[in-house]
Amino acid sequence: MSAEAVAAAPIAEEATPVVYYSIESNDRVVLKISEQAIKQSATLSNSITNLGYSAENAESMVPIPIEKVNGKTLKLVVEWCEHHKADPVPEAYPSGNTVLPVWDRKFVDIEHDALTDLVNASNFLEVMTLLTYCCKFIAGLAKGMSPEEMRVFFCIPTDEEDEKAERFGKEKTEASATSADTTA
Amino acid sequence: MAENDGETIVPDEQCNLTASTPMKSSGLEQVESPKERKTSMVECDDEGNPSSGTPDESPKQLTPHSIPPRRRRSPRRPEVSASRLPLKVLNQIFQYLPLKDLRSAMLTCHSWNNALSMEDSDIWQYLLGKKLPEAAVSDPFLLAELGSAKKKLRAWYFAWNTSDISRNNYIRTNGFTVHRQPVAQSTDGVRGKRGISKGVHAFDITWDGPLGTVAVVGIATKHAALHCVGYVALLGSDDQSWGWNLVDNVLMHNGAQLGVYPKMNNPPKYEVGDKIRLIIDCDTHVAYFERNSEFLGIAFNHIPPLRLYPAVCAVYGNTEVTMVYVGSPQMG
């Protein structure tokens, strides 16, 4: 009886702890993501495997640097992965018949800048389902728009605006150079 | 310490100058002010990086500038603009859009136009698989001349019209071939799905079965009849259609024969399976044919500026005619 009790205790202890890995954004924000959730990101999964991270040394290792994602966006990606950590990871990008679940629709319904950052981050981190949901949401917004409406909605400059911005940038550069000469 | 103070002073002065110049410019042109602020943000970032003291101040300076551009809906933060998404991501977004919206996307900006101009990219492959019947995709000869997925998709939109056809004709499962059923004393026609009214367009038409006593290829308006009793050169029998009867090489329009075509003594007879290219030049109001890539001369001129559809009419039972749109023909 006592032997069985001793045998049961280690099993329970092993089941209890959840392994967390630390990841760091390009603006030094450190976030923790569970072992189960990290599977959703092919890039992070490969990093953990190739860099020698494991359940034993996860807490003592330095955070994994994510150079191309800022803290705010990385936090969103981690939140999404944690919410979907029980979901199977698709092997390829889903086809055009994707259905956008309610929770995910609310999740990706954010400001355009943040949404664009989230799209780029999920593309870089290869979170395939999140990228698909973002793309489907963006396509839903763009449906029925004229080119002018698309430019306004997605904050895309026209050629004329691009040229004006370039010209203005050059003038600013010249003004800065002139002031620098004056100061010297 | 003195040297450090000197270094910190210069960036501040530059930042001040940067801030002051937009105010002067904004007085001159209000339209440019949002872009000026955008540019000043970028310059502050560049100047703030070298100095350790400045980072604390630059975020505060950036905050006020970030509000007005959003309200004015002007372009801001080009580094995260939707126009600069990776190609893979753009293809993912575009695959959820119908064709009409893809056209709007092509006209939105250069990078989107570039993404959609790759005629064999994933988006066109996906739409091709979605729209074209399997019988057309698997036929190695049907669309062989069309070199890209986009062109094949376009041909599908111009193919024979399943709802604008004589009741004795039906379109085969490949979507590009019309089959005439064996019905006695009946002339049966079909029109393409889309008419044309501008530009130069070419249609490859192949008679896959026997001609019978009447086999006319040509153009028709929306109002031209597609069925009549008897064996009649229906296409070209009124002012709504123009036809070339391959059986006797006669051109017809408004019930009148315009002579043999090609205009030579004893023009060669059509061989079943030969490819006829019908070319309609809406800008100069002429139509003509090529046979196996050989120009045969102008067939019809002074065509009125109407929306014209490729059309054929047939009388032989179980004969078949295939039509594939190829876009603008290559001018020799």
Automatic annotation (TrEMBL), chain A:
Residues 165-174 have a biased composition (Basic and acidic residues). One of its GO terms (cellular component) is nucleus. Residues 23-85 form the SKP1 component POZ domain. Residues 175-184 have a biased composition (Low complexity). Pathway: Protein modification; protein ubiquitination. One of its GO terms (molecular function) is cullin family protein binding. GO terms for biological process: protein ubiquitination; SCF-dependent proteasomal ubiquitin-dependent protein catabolic process. InterPro entries: SKP1 (IPR016897), SKP1-like (IPR001232), SKP1-like_dim_sf (IPR036296), SKP1/BTB/POZ_sf (IPR011333), Skp1_comp_dimer (IPR016072), Skp1_comp_POZ (IPR016073). Keywords: Ubl conjugation pathway. Residues 129-174 form the SKP1 component dimerisation domain. It comes from the Eukaryota. Residues 165-184 are annotated as: Disordered. It holds the Pfam family Skp1. Belongs to the SKP1 family. Probable essential component of SCF (SKP1-CUL1-F-box protein) E3 ubiquitin-protein ligase complexes, which mediate the ubiquitination and subsequent proteasomal degradation of target proteins. Regulates cell proliferation during embryonic and larval development. This is Skp1-related protein. The gene is skr-15.
